[in-house]
Every structure is written in structure tokens, then in C-alpha cells.
Fold:
Amino acid sequence: MSEEKLSKRNFTDRILWAGFALAIIAAVAIGWSADKDASEANAWSKWITHTQNVLGVLEDARGNSLAALAAIQNYYQSGDLRNLDSVGDLLSKLKRQSAALRSLMVDNAQRNRVDQFDRIGRRMAALSENIIRSAPAFSPQQSIRTPEAAELSTAADQLLEQLHQMNAAEVQLLTERTDKARAISRQSLTLLGIGGSLVFVWLLIVGGYAFLTTRWLINTAKALAFSQAELARATEHKRDEDDLRALNESERRHAAQLEVINKELEAFSYSVSHDLRGPLRSIDGFSSALMEDYADKLDEQANSYLRRIRAATGRMAQLIDDLLKLAFVTRSEMHTEAVDLSALANAVLAECQKGEPLRQVECVVQDHLVGQGDPRLLRSVFENLLGNAWKFTSKTQQAKIEFAVVDQDGQAVYFVRDNGAGFDMTYAEKLFSAFQRLHTTADFPGTGVGLATVQRIIRRHGGRVSAQGAEGRGATFSFTLEVNHGGQQ
Amino acid sequence: MKERVILLVEDNSDDEALTMRALKKNNIANTILVARDGVEALDYLFGTGQYAERDTSVQPELILLDLKLPKVDGFEVLKKLRADERTKLLPVVILTSSKEQQDIVNGYGLGANSYVRKPVDFQHFVSAVGQLGVYWLVLNERPPACPGSGR
Structure:
């Protein structure tokens, strides 16, 4: 997200909040204004009701006034005084009504008219009483048409006139007040309509904007979360890939190194096998030629030297061969399978016997011993161990060679035991080093590579090898095989 | 009767001398022709180079081939002579110091008839050469289809 876009967002956010505030203020203002209008309209409607009440009273008074006028006119026509009695009743009714009107009337013009009305009423009452008091029981026609009676009639007209004026004024007021109230409610409605619409539109805009902003924020958040997840995944993936690459790289390097080492070893072995033997062949061959072709010219001493030379080349050749075997043990491929160790031991011992048919050796091989291993390499182990036992019992009376297994903590430990020359345990460690010998070549021939070969093979099988012995009391060589399917079957 | 030649391909003069001695000691009277590298051996067999004038219808009775040779090694020589009509059936005995498995497999793979490792002990070597001579020159029947057969 660019900085520019973010700051733009901040700016529009401020507008958003301002918009909301404005909408709220506008709504409050409209509400307040409408409320004011409503109370005003309410006041006006009260006034209208008031006016209507006044008009009602005026209507009643007009009825009474008309009745009084009619009674006065009846009296004027008939001279019947009972008509004047009813005029008196009507006047007292009108007096109460005028009092009511006075209490209702607020403006001075109308009050003056009420006062006028009262005065006329009081004058009429006075006139009416005078007529009744001065008139005889049966008054003739002539006596009726007095100035007082005429005045009473005029007063009644005036009374009606006053009522008419008051009524007109009240009607005028009513019209004005009704118009006013209508105007207020129209204004209020307009205000409410326009203001409400404005607020609505404003809210719509602001709300829409808020919605869009929210959606933008949500999308942005989602996108951000997704990006983070992606990043996390990518990072993890990358880390895994890096680890894998590093692992592959180191493995590849190791493989390459191993290959180089193997190549060098192969080249070395080849060189030893092919090139070191050549000169030995020449030494032996020409020594032999000397001995054969010049036998008459060489004395016994010279012949003995030549024999020594040839013996040395023979030992050298044997050393080279053993070295090659040792190298082979290290670099040859392992093919593990179930190997019949008992059969292997018997076969090797039979070969030894064949090499020296005259020797009498008691060979005891435990039956049915099967171990997991490479048959070729295990054969080498047996050739060396049993070959050693055969060799080192060559000077022993009643020689005995044993091959068997013992169980040690659930593991099969195979051993080859003989009752031969044995060895000093002090030097037991040296036994398994290449070219280390604990006996002279004169006593027992050998190159000292055999046990080193055995140790390498057993180690390649994941097992271990050890030796116990004492000088002149035989030796026991024990070994284990890692992949072991229980020795005895 | 044409010459019954034994072609000895050997670069080491000591080995050459000892092999000659061993052959002599076994009373093998064939002409021994020595090629001191692979190129010379091929020149002789195919009548090229220094042997351009040679009648290639006459081919050796037996080839004793060392593996480690200057210029063109024993395997290459073997491959080329097995690929040529004139020489493809010739008996070839690899006579070498090596007993590397790879060499043995390669040798037989390219069509060697035999693989013998030279013993260091000269008596053993004489014995081995004697047996080779008896076997390949006397006991063994040469392939009749082989052109240039002396018989």
C-alpha cells in the first residue's frame, strides 16, 4: 500500500466523521425546529378552539337577543306586559353570557364591545322595568307606544349590532389563527421533508462511503492477511526448500567426496595390484635365472642370498595381496542375506584339513547357526579366524578348534576358540591392527592383516569383535552381527 | 608350412625377458613377436604403419596381451581386433599383473579367451606359461574360419 494512498484514506476518513457529525447536528436541528413548530401550532390550535368557544357564546347571546327583540316587538304590538317579563329573563341570561364573554375576550376592541353590550343590556333592563312599573293592568293601545318602548326596541337592535360586530371580529380572528396554524404546519412539514431528505441523502452518501471504506478496509485486511499468510507460507516453503537444498547440497558434496575417495582408493588398489607386483616379479624372475643359469659359478653363500631375495619377494607379494583384500573389505558392496555360519565354518575347516591332510585336529562346530551378513565377507572372517586357529594349533598336542554361539543379554555372540599358542592379553589391542603380529614369522607365518580384515568386516556388519587368550593356553575370538535373527535354530 | 607366430604385447622389458625365458623353458619354439605398445600391436595385426608391407593373411597363433600399455591400452587393442574380420577369432590371452574384478569383467566382455594373472614367483610363472603353451598351441583347436590360418 502506497503512502500516498494511505494519507488520502486518512483525509477521507476525516471527511467521513465530519459528515456523520453534520448529519447528526442537522437531524437535531430539524427535530428541535419541528418541535418548536409543533408547540406553536398547538398554541394556535388552542386559540382556534378558544375563538370557537367565544363564537358559540356569541351565537347563544344572539339567540337570546333575537328572542328579546321579538318579545319587545310583541309587546309593542299587543301591549301584553308578559312579553316584557320574558325580556327581563332574557336580559339576565345575556348578562351572564356577557360576563362569560368578558372572561374569554383578551383584545381591547372586543372588550369594549362587551362593555357596550353590557351597557345596552342594563339600559334595556331599566327601560323594561320602568314600562312594567308604570303600566296599568290592562293598558290600552295608545299607552303602549311610549318613547320608552321605542327606545327599548332600538336598544335591542343595538344589542344585536354589538353581537354582530363581536362575531365578525371573532370570525376574523378565527380565520387569521387558522391560517397561521396552517402556515406553521406547512412550514414544519416542509422543513421536516427537506431536512429529512437532506439528512437521508447525506447519510446515504456517508453510509455508502463508510460501507465502501469498510469493504476496502476488509479487503485490504484480507489481502494483507492473505499476503502475510502467503509470505509465511513462502517463507516456510523457502526455509524448507533452503533446508532441503542445503541438505541436498551437503549430501551431494559428501557423495562427491566419497566418489573421489573411492576413485583414489581404486586407483591406489589398481596401482598396488598391477604396478608393485611387476618389480617383484622381475626380482624373483632374475634371481631364479641366476640360480639356474649360473649355478656352477655361485657358491652356497651366493645361492643362499638369492634364496633369501626370492623369499622376501614372496612375502612382499603376499603382503600386497592381503592389502588388496583389506581394501576390498572396505570398499566392496554389501549384500546382506541369511548365511549358514555352521556350514561356512565346516567348509573352511575342511579346506584347512585339505591343505594339511596329516594334521589331527578336533573340530567342533555348533549346528544350524544362521547369521545375517554378506556371504563373501563372512567367508573371509571364517577363513581368517579358523585359519588362525588352525595355524596356531599346529604345535599343539590334541589340537581343538571350536565354533559356537552364546547368548549375552539377548544378543548372539559367536566365538572361535582354539587351544593353540594363544597370546599375551597385554597386546590384545594390537591384534586387530594391520601388520601387527604377536608371533615371529619363523614360528607362525603370516602378514598380520588377517585380524584387521576380520575387524573391518564385523564393523561393516555393525557388530563388534574381541579377543581373549593367554600365552600357551589358546585364544578365543568373539564377534557379533548387528542384523541377527537368533543364532540357534 | 607357415610360421606359427605368438604375438606378445608387453611394454616392460623385464617382463618380456622373463616371458621369453619361460616360453623357452617350456620348449615353445614358435616365433615370438613382441609389440611394445598397443599401436604397434594393431599395426602388426592390420598391416599398417611399420608393418605396412606385412601379409595380413598370416595372423598370430596366439596373442598374449598385457592390459597396461602406453598409447593404446590392452582393452582398446582387444576391442579393435575383435571388430575386424581378419582378427576377430584369434585366441587372445590376457596376461597381466592385475586381478581387479573390473579388469577381468572388461577383458572377457571384450572377447578375451582367457585371463591369466602373472605370478610373482618365477617358478609359478614358468609353470603358467607352460600350461598356456600346451593348451593354446597344442590342445586347443584353432577356429577354422579364421583367415590366415597357418594350417
About this structure: The longest strand of chain B covers residues 5-9. The first helix of chain B runs from residue 13 to 25. The radius of gyration of chain B is 14 Å. The domain at 5-139 of chain B is CATH 3.40.50.2300 (Rossmann fold).
